Amino acid sequence: MNDFNEIYEINKELDRMFENNFDVSFDEFYRKNKLELLVEISELANETRVFKYWSKKEPDFEKMMYELADCIIITLSFFNYKNISLDEEFPSMMEYSDSVDLFFKLYDLGNRFYNDDDSNTLKLILVTIMQLSSELNINREDVISYTKSKIERNFIRMKEGF
To answer: Counting runs of H as helices and runs of E as strands, what totals does the chain give?
Structure first.
């Protein structure tokens, strides 16, 4: 995961802006961000359209990428809060049937992280997000590029007051 180090460092700056600009206790901030993780996973599922068997409409690649970026950004924020290095060892990818199974796995891991706040669960979340992106035929360079772009958009939105 060390190819995400640049994004991680930029994201830490964004985390500091959020912490400094909102009058919310760290515990409340952290708890609400756990809910945000689940919401972002849901927004990504909606944009991928993998569950919409009734629809012929193709996913909007850019919207899907920005939702994927949001999942990565919030996950990296938890890495920052827990002082986890991207150079640490990460679990290997798991067996799965398809992208729908990977979304269910992300929901399961998100709920588990809400309850146990474990660093290994958090690492599994990032691995699963990356596994999902691979399943969706999204290359790592696009993941990194769109995540950088979304962080920059968030800096602008923060300065403008969201």
So the answer is: 6, 0
| Six token digits for residue 143 | 């993941």
**The pair of three-digit structure tokens given for residue 152, joined into one six-digit string:** 């920059």
Spell out the residues 6+ positions from residue 106 whose beta carbon is closer than 8 angstroms to its own: 41, 125, 128, 129, 132
Alpha-carbon gap, residue 47 to 45, rounded angstroms: 6
Question: Is pTM, for the whole model, over 0.90?
Answer: yes
Reading the block at residue 11, the tokens are 């994201």
Q: What pLDDT, on a 0 to 100 scale, did the predictor assign at position 24?
A: 84
Cβ neighbours of residue 51 under 8 Å, at least 6 residues apart? 45, 100, 103
Q: What is the DSSP letter of 50?
A: T
Summarize pLDDT for 24-64 with one digit per residue, the tens: 888 998 999 999 999 999 999 999 999 999 999 999 999 99
* Contact by Cβ (8 Å): 113, 122: yes
The HSE-up count of residue 58 (CA atoms within 13 Å, CB side) is: 4
- The residue among 14, 25, 65 whose CA lies nearest residue 44 is 65
Looking at residue 88, what DSSP letter applies? S
Angle 125-84-142 from CA coordinates, rounded to 5°: 55
